[in-house]
Amino acid sequence: MTQARRSRSARLRGRAAGIVLAGGSGTRVGAGINKAFLPLSGRSIAAWGLNTLASVEGVGLLVFVVRPDDLEHARFVEARETDGPLEIIVGGETRQESELAALRHLADRIDSGAVDTVLIHDAARPLVSHGLASAVLHAARENGGAVPGIPAADIAAAGPGQSLREGPDGRRAPLVRVQTPQGFHAATILDAYEAAARDGFSGTDTASCAEEYTDLPVTWVRGEETNFKITYAQDLLLAQDVVSALGLRSG
């Protein structure tokens, strides 16, 4: 590695923040608590994603966004299930509000340059790999924004009264099932969320807000079939099977 590359690597080390959102419920899983705190092979579902993001080179801190009722659960996760300290904050009523709360929590560090990139991840996707999280961070730094996704050959987009939407070459535009973590240039996405709050805009995920309020060239990296979201009880059973089959460990 050249001196210039070593210098750049040193500047980037630890300047990304991981944001993990745990604002869901356990209703569709059939649980009485937030599904993020249900057990998965010895640790809570949330702990898996938190530990994976913590292991990514370049991620210097983690913000864990929870509901007020889940603060005690979150503190248990920090004390007993994760490898480093978490900055635990209370989110909002919606995903958009929770993301904005996390970005505002980081605002001073974003403004100072101490945080240059954010990775925003759903706690309900416990089996994201270290390699995928690292790839998203790298792509976000190279391009300004990045999301992981799986090509979706079985669905197609169509506008009202239109046939299947076509790409610029006349062929059907490829669609992607988007996953998390989604990575973005921190200052730009903070400004975008502030603008969205003023307008009352609420997107489905971070990328939708970025598309609406920024000119960032958002790229996508190939996601992983195992990086699925736990929504129903069968998803948790499948996650347990994947952990057993692949011999995975959290942390």
TrEMBL record:
Q: Which UniProt keywords apply?
A: Membrane, Nucleotidyltransferase, Transferase, Transmembrane, Transmembrane helix
Instruction: Tell me one Pfam family matched here.
Output: IspD
Identify the Gene3D superfamilies for this entry: Spore Coat Polysaccharide Biosynthesis Protein SpsA, Chain A
Q: Does the keyword Transferase apply?
A: yes
* Molecular functions per Gene Ontology: 2-C-methyl-D-erythritol 4-phosphate cytidylyltransferase activity
Reply yes or no: does the keyword Iron apply. Answer: no
List where the protein spans the membrane. Answer: 12-33, 45-66
Q: Name one GO biological process term.
A: isoprenoid biosynthetic process
Write down what this protein is called.
2-C-methyl-D-erythritol 4-phosphate cytidylyltransferase
This chain's source organism reads Brachybacterium saurashtrense
